[in-house]
Amino acid sequence: MTIQESGEMYLETILVLSRSQETVRSVDVATRLGFSKPSVCRAVGLLKEGEFIDVDAHGHITLTDAGLEVAARIYERHTVLSAALERLGVPKEQATADACKMEHDISDVSFDAIKKAFFQKS
What we know:
Elements: H1 5-20, H2 26-33, H3 37-49, E1 53-55, E2 61-63, H4 65-87, H5 92-102, H6 108-119
Antiparallel strand pairs: 1-2
Helix pairs in contact: 1-2, 1-3, 1-4, 2-3, 4-5, 4-6
């Protein structure tokens, strides 16, 4: 199943939250993203249907292997792009905001070139 940008954003958020707290629920995602609970519930339903997440009887959300793969890829792009922009002199807040936009659209070729240029020794 192909996942859209919004789905990638939700998965990345679930990953980040799961690294800082024991459980992740829809309300946590809504709070983090500033979205309404009904919007997040709809997205969670679609991600569950697409087998990117599992939701237990208590409403705890976990990433499936497929969800983790997408989330980790997007999170890596976010962190690398944000750090690269900061190295170029972009203020941290702006670099983070711009990285959030770029991480979903940049090609693998361009991302790999940026990663290599800024973070891999030749």
